[in-house]
Here is the input.
Amino acid sequence: MADHAPRPCCHPGCGRLVSNGSYCAQHQVLADQRRTEQLQAANKRYNPRRAESDKFYDTAPWRRFRRYYLITHPLCVDCEAEGLVVPAVVVDHIKPFKERPDLALDETNMRGLCRPHDNRRRHDRRGRD
Here is the structure.
């Protein structure tokens, strides 16, 4: 027994009537494949190791170090190089923490950045424009 009145399949150009769901049997297969591909793409972007490495940034030693570093180095190093005076809001590891955890709290491996320069650095590392 149908749950509601038949309506057209949601696939563009298909006029078949369906009484349950959004797609006819033929297009439901395509919709399921598309959804599976979307989920696989989302899973590729998820990296379980990232959650492990991000735990470091929620520790008391990192928070104390970050506060100390921003007090002693209050300006964005990239803006300073451009002749601008902009406060740093991010403490960036020059050599990434994931690659060199031994340098996690090493002041020589840090630089203060403003938000725009931090965003640009992140995009550059990921290969984006």
